[in-house]
Design brief:
Blueprint: E1 2-6, H1 12-21, E2 25-29, E3 40-43, H2 48-57, H3 60-67, E4 75-78, H4 80-85, E5 86-90, E6 100-105, E7 116-120, E8 130-134, E9 139-143, E10 148-153, E11 156-162, E12 165-168, H5 179-191
Parallel strand pairs: 1-2, 1-3, 3-4, 4-12, 5-6
Antiparallel strand pairs: 6-9, 7-8, 10-11, 11-12
Bound molecules: glutamine.
Glutamine binds at residues 45-48, 79-80, 83, 106-107, 135-136.
């Protein structure tokens, strides 16, 4: 499996490293042609207005619309990546993909100085809490009926999935734990077209 990491802003190197440790090949994605030979994409955190603007400028929004048309190209959006995958955004609304039926409120977990780490219970990863780092994180303020919640913090959903798309309000690459990357890779494997036998 080959996973792309959107390399516009954020912890690109950490996501590449976690992806490789979790057993997949990892590639940086900047331009539409970088999407050709990957099976899924991770969109790191950063500043969603800037990332969305550059994605639109590089032609990546249109290229991803094409690539995801059959619903078999998984994308994991973390933090700003969640905002770019959200159908609705409260406040200033960046150019984005909007594939997940959620509403996201930007910076709703406080400013940079209010960043924090918590041990989150994420049942699909097993019983060990996941060390989740929140940095000016978005809150999910509405969850559509087809979206499955995967984790909550103080009663509010902070990780969810809908079909091939996975989102988390927090940064999974900032701790050594690679279970979310492993979870995403399994999702990619389950949706990747089976190669035809050559003989
Ligand atoms: N760490 C992050 O990705 C923060 C997201 C940022 N607050 C935004 O709205 O774009």
């Amino acid at each position: 499996m080959r996973i792309g990491v959107l390399a516009i802003q954020g912890d690109v190197r950490e996501h590449l490293r976690h992806t490789e440790r979790a057993g997949a090949e990892a590639r940086e994605v900047r331009l539409p042609r970088d999407l050709d030979d990957i099976n899924g994409l991770i969109m790191p955190g950063g500043e969603s207005t800037t990332i969305g603007m550059l994605m639109a400028e590089y032609g990546l929004i249109d290229a991803l619309k094409e690539r995801t048309r059959e619903g078999r190209f998984p994308i994991y959006g973390t933090c700003a990546g969640l905002i770019l995958l959200a159908r609705d955004v409260v406040g200033p609304s960046p150019a984005r993909l909007g594939y997940v039926d959620i509403e996201a409120a930007r910076n709703a977990y406080g400013r940079q100085v209010a960043s924090f780490e918590v041990g989150l219970d994420i049942p699909c990863l097993g019983s060990e809490p996941f060390p989740a780092v929140f940095i000016r994180a978005p809150k999910i303020t509405r969850l559509g009926p087809d979206v499955t919640p995967l984790a909550r913090y103080q009663g509010e959903v902070v990780m969810a999935e809908q079909g091939p798309y996975l989102v988390s309000s927090f940064h999974p690459e900032m701790s050594p734990d690679i279970r979310i990357h492993e979870y995403f890779i399994k999702k990619v494997e389950s949706l990747s077209p089976v190669r035809e036998a050559t003989s």
